[in-house]
Amino acid sequence: MIGQTISQYKITAKLGDGGMGVVYLADDLQLGRQVAIKILSKEFASDRERCARFDREARLLASLNHPNIATIHGLEELGDSRAIVLELVEGPTLADLLGRGSLSLGETLRIGRQIAEALEAAHLQGIVHRDLKPSNIKLTSSGRVKVLDFGLAKTVAVGNGAQDRGSEDTAAATRVGTIVGTAAYMSPEQAVGGTVDRRADIWAFGALLYEMLTGTCAFPGKTVPEVLAGVLAGEVNWTLLPSDLRTTLVTLMKRCLTVDAEQRLADIREARATLDALFSTAPGGIVREVARASAGTPDWSIVVLPFTNISPDADNEYFSDGLTEEVITDLSKVGSLRVISRTTTMRLKGAGKGLRTIAAELNVRYALEGSVRKSGSTVRITAQLIDTQTDSHLWSEKYGGTLDDVFGIQERVSRAIVEALQIRLTADEDRRLAKRPASTGFAYDVYLRARRDIFSFSKERLDRACSLLKDAISIVGDDPLLYRGMGTGLWRYVTVGLSSDPKYLDDAEEYARKLQELDPKGPHAAVLFGYIASQRGDMRGSIREFKRALAVDPHDPDILAWLGTGWLFSGYPQHAKPLFERLRTIDPLFDILYIKLGFLECFEGRFAPAIELYDRARALTHDPIAVVLLRAQAMASLGDVTGAIDLIEKCCPDPSVHPFACLSRILAHALRDERDAAERLATPEFKSRMWGDYQYLHIMAQSYALLGDIDQGLRWLQRSTERGFIHYPFLSTRDPLLENLRSDPRFHTLMEKVRHEWETFEESVR
User: Fold this and answer.
1) CA–CA distance from 113 to each of 209, 238, 500, 520 (Å)?
2) How far apart are CA 271 and CA 123, in angstroms?
3) CB 133 within 8 A of CB 181
4) SS3 for 211?
5) What contacts 315, CB < 8 A, 6 or more positions away?
6) Are 217 and 157 within 8 A, CB to CB?
7) CB 655 within 8 A of CB 661
8) Pairing with 697, which of 230, 237, 365, 640 sits 20 to 30 Å away (CA)?
9) Where are the domains of the chain?
């Protein structure tokens, strides 16, 4: 096969043999990346059962979207056979690591938590792996765990009920002698051909934890019967565990390795929660315990500290901040490097923390420091790369030039870091690093100036930003960064409730189309289209666009946040949660992250933990009024009506300063049953601005429901669902602020419609 081309994939080398086929390395000639291709062996190509299993693996992988599960790129026909195109995961397997002995506690917790997250994502989809073992787990150079090979996976009921029997596969594997590497991780019920559900994976997970901590297989043996005898008896030598191991961790392993499946730990989420609890967290939610252990710190991980502005004009700080973010963006294009994202980085400005403290809190090894001096069109930049574990300077350099040289300087800084860390770039990464974000330095400078105002809630500031960008476009002409800024600014008028004029979205869409023409392979046009679709109530279109953007840039915090939000308000928390968890690893001080996690809790009816998450967001955000509204909602939902009213009155005294302030005051009046006061604020003009956004509509529905105005409550709720809020379990039963609507037959008619939309939504966006 080497040298042959399948579709757009040219095979270059053999990677290994599997139970059902051969895995090859291949170049994706269309997208300029390397992939793994698993080709079904010729002797199985005519076996209908084997082909069905091969196809099933592809479908199962396609249904899973999680950073700890290897991604599938496609299924290709190959004459009489077929091939699965997979993400190429480079790095050692867990088996390779264990070949050198036991792992540290920190490394075990770090790896174990990621395996648990992968299993949680699979189990939420009703998928059981059934072949979890060290050789099916890879560790990338950035410290990311990837679970591989779902070739034996089966779908089961999402609850504890099992509907899968693995006897045929197990028996066949035993007959041909291919079970030796798997037997030690096989649950007792699987070993005897019994009924298998997700508890089989939990058994294997317990065996993996034990082996990582001891360096010894939980069920050793020279032959398959000897191994299986130990499995069926549940004979584990617990004395081999480190003597100082926490009791909670030992108890977890024993619960995972309980022979009786009915007595075994039933939900991998509980295992993940236990591992989380072993991490000592700071108030900001940043992992400390594992970060302090050098073995648990990924070798290729970096934080780019905010570049210091040493310009004569202090106002030039916008430029030093922009340069910091562009370097972060460049480095994020390197897949094997974990880069702390921009929001968290910017919160370090003025924090007064030492490098070792920052590195420990963020669980990174390297830090980039720098300074910027800008005077007119002249720019001088210094940068230095530091190994925080040794306090040694790996590289430092000074650069000078004009604004038009800034892109070259950014690229040289990024490439110097990659070279210093001895990272091998793929062809696609090399191409993306060379790509310039704007056509000229002038356009870049204007965008950075305008961006300060784009993400405000002030019409005056948005007007100023869009005017600045429009003038620059008239001078420069076509420019992707300026189009991106204009499109985002126009969308912001509507999404923050400053205007209901559809022309803003129409004009934003026009800039998105221009951006797509200039940069068809970039993520930014898809992001803009996603923003616009969401604001127009097209949640399906929004999710499709953000999925497209994420495929190009899997590390962008805004893409992760918005895609997760779409899934969450559509009633699919199982798809949102992995995205938010990925966001937590790269941007742990992002205020939006904790707002989204608060939504997750609220939609499950858990309002107390949601309040804690909103408090964390409130401490991080520069614009707390929106978070105040969300916290008040959660407090009222929990029954603390007085506290919710007091919070709103204290933090939102003037309803005219902010759309969210006005919404908050309307909610407060509704909680007090003050209809006239609420209606004075809910003017026709204000209502028209709220009429397009599913979240604002929902708050208005809650307010009218609290006031006992059933007709208006149902009217606003129906509009909210039509605009994309179709989280049926929450709206139908869990939202206590809608309770007054539930006695009306029209509510149940509406909920039946929502239920149908919710049940068919996932399939419609595939």
Assistant:
1) 10, 21, 45, 37
2) 13
3) yes
4) helix
5) none
6) no
7) yes
8) 640
9) 5-87, 94-277, 289-434
131: annotated active-site residue = yes
Q: Which stretch, 137-151, 256-270, 354-368, 420-434, has highest mean pLDDT?
A: 256-270
CA–CA separation, 435 and 429 (whole Å) = 10
Fold of domain 5-87: Phosphorylase Kinase; domain 1 (3.30.200)
Backbone φ, ψ for residue 118 (5° rounding): -65, -45
C-alpha to C-alpha distance for 394 and 399, rounded to whole angstroms:
17
Helix axes 503-518, 480-495, angle to 10 degrees: 160
E strands along 166-206, which residues?
195-196
Q: What confidence score (pLDDT) does residue 56 get?
A: 67
Comparing 5-87 with 289-434, is the CATH topology the same?
Answer: no
- Token reading at 678: 């609420």
Residues in the chain, how many? 766
Output the average pLDDT for the chain. 85
Q: With contact defined as beta carbons under 8 Å apart, do 574 and 587 qualify?
A: no
Reported as type and span, the H/E element at residue 315 is none
Distance CA 54, CA 83 (A): 9
One of 27, 131, 321, 693 is an active-site residue; which one? 131
Cα–Cα distance measured from residue 660 to residue 673, given in angstroms and rounded to the nearest whole number: 20
Across 280-304, average pLDDT:
46
Tokens of 406: 């800034």
Q: Which residues contact 669 (CB under 8 A, 6 or more apart)?
A: 675, 677, 678, 681, 703
CATH architecture of the domain formed by 289-434? 3-Layer(aba) Sandwich (3.40)
Output the CATH code of domain 94-277: 1.10.510.10
Quickly state the pLDDT bin for 299 (edges 50, 70, 90). Answer: low
> What phi and psi, each to the nearest 5 degrees, are found at residue 61?
-65, -40
SS3 155: strand
Nearest C-alpha neighbor of 98 from the set 206, 209, 215 = 215
Q: List, in sequence order, the alpha helices (H) in 286-402.
A: 289-292, 317-332, 342-346, 355-362
Tokens representing residue 465 in the block: 């930003």
Q: HEC profile for 744-762?
A: CHHHHHHHHHHHHHHHHHH
Query: Cα-flanking dihedrals φ and ψ of residue 155, to 5°?
Result: -90, 140
Q: Range with the lowest mean pLDDT among 43-47, 129-133, 321-325, 586-590?
A: 43-47
Note whether 463 and 428 are within 8 A (CB).
no
The answer to whether residues 134 and 108 touch, using CB atoms and an 8 Å cutoff, is no
Give the pair of three-digit tokens for residue 98.
């264990």
